[in-house]
Amino acid sequence: MNRYFIEVGYKGAQYSGFQVQENAHSVQAEIDRALGILFRSPIETTGSSRTDAGVNAQQNFLHFDTELPLHPQFLYKINAILPDDVVLRAIYQVPEDANSRFAALSRSYEYTLYTHKDPFLKDRGYFFPYKMNIAALEEAAEVIMGYSDFTTFSKRNSQVKTHICKITESRWTVDGERIVYNVTGNRFLRGMVRGLVGTMLRVGRGKLSMDQFRQVIESLDCTNADFAVPPQGLFLMNVRYPDGLLQPISFDRQ
């Protein structure tokens, strides 16, 4: 049995989330369907990172097992089957015990705000035409790196064993009319990035002081966080694995 990792990207607007769900349209279900058609045999994937309804991904990974050979035009064929808003970018041979979820060292997310009306950012960002204290936003982002228990920013019924996350990057940058939040961590909780963004925006708008922001984090109570920012501004940008794990499979030009 061979195990493969596949690297995918997708626009989340038309999906109820990444993970397969009963009676719901999901990205993973579309990928499993396409693989099943190509291999002419049922394929069940395991995803590295779950994203919520409407959230996008520049890069996400899944793994699957099969004894069947890869089609010599695998990438071309699978992308012809997949819908226009999902792309399979690459496939990698990995050891049979490698798990796309548990082998990941870190995940990186990006959330984009834009401050002036722009139809080209409508489905890739959050229109937020309000005055903000950028210095306060930047300070709040730094504060986050001093904590490890993110219970406050986990939606209820997440069914996780721990709310401990190690955040290694948390920063805001201003790029013209775009205000972008980048965060990297070993793991993220359900709704966590949007909760962080929404709550920090309250700091930037002067509705929470820095001391109050710390109190929100330390309360370990999700009712104190603001999860109301829309999903289309959020992108899973990168999933990082140990060096040498991913061995890319190359195909003839198609």
From TrEMBL:
Residues that bind substrate, according to the entry?
Answer: 109
Print the keywords alphabetically.
Isomerase, tRNA processing
Stored InterPro entries = PsdUridine_synth_cat_dom_sf, PsdUridine_synth_TruA, PsdUridine_synth_TruA_a/b_dom, PsdUridine_synth_TruA_C, TruA/RsuA/RluB/E/F_N
Give the enzyme's main class according to its UniProt record, as a single word: isomerase
Ranges for domain Pseudouridine synthase I TruA alpha/beta come to 140-242
GO terms, molecular function: RNA binding; tRNA pseudouridine(38-40) synthase activity
Q: Which is a GO BP term held by this UniProt record?
A: tRNA pseudouridine synthesis
- Keyword Membrane attributed: no
Q: What is its EC number?
A: 5.4.99.12
Q: Does the keyword Isomerase apply?
A: yes
Q: Which Gene3D superfamilies match?
A: Pseudouridine synthase I, catalytic domain, C-terminal subdomain (3.30.70.660), Pseudouridine synthase I, catalytic domain, N-terminal subdomain (3.30.70.580)
Q: How does it assemble?
A: Homodimer.
What job does the chain carry out?
Answer: Formation of pseudouridine at positions 38, 39 and 40 in the anticodon stem and loop of transfer RNAs.
Protein family: Belongs to the tRNA pseudouridine synthase TruA family.
Q: What is this protein called?
A: tRNA pseudouridine synthase A
Recorded source organism is Chitinophaga arvensicola
